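Predict the 3D structure for this chain.
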Amino acid sequence: MISRKILLLLITVVSTVFGSVGCSLERNFEVEAKVPASVMRTQTKRANVPYVPTPQRVVEAMLELAQVNSNDVIYDLGSGDGRIPITAVQKYNARRAVGVEINPRLVQESRTNAQKIGVSDRVEFKQQDLFQTDLGDATVVTLYLLPNVNLRLRPKLLKELKPGTRIVSHSFDMGNWKPQQVVRIRGRTLYLWVVPEQIPTNLTS
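Done. Predicted structure below.
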């Protein structure tokens, strides 16, 4: 039979544990309540596209597939540590490159990498939701996202990009928009599209 003293001790421990959990949950809900809805939505979008670095040889293959040259302005959507924009200006002499990344830590890492290599005068990194980015001056767009994100992004690309703009996606296609070229390198698949003069209506929805 449990003594009165032990029983009281058990009740005290249980009350303390549940009280602490309750306080912790209340604090978490208070923090969430102060976060703007737009930020919560953005964080959710980012969570749907985990950061997986592209191997450097695949980075170069993407830029070669797009035939990047000194006239090009590159936009890398979901730019991670900045390796695609940095390589575009360093090795392929792109006129300018822009990385768009929602994660502030990766944006800072990218800026540091560009400074170390000495290309920060031609590379810009934006902490931004890629769906809110103005792509109007891009001549090349690179992607390593997910199939559903590519499909959601497709109407924006076709609306904002000029005819002749090249789009290269690592690993994932864009549904019924047939790529002009498909390249396989080291077990990876790369897709190339060129924005047409006349855009089929079935691709804009």
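DSSP finds six helices and seven strands in the chain.
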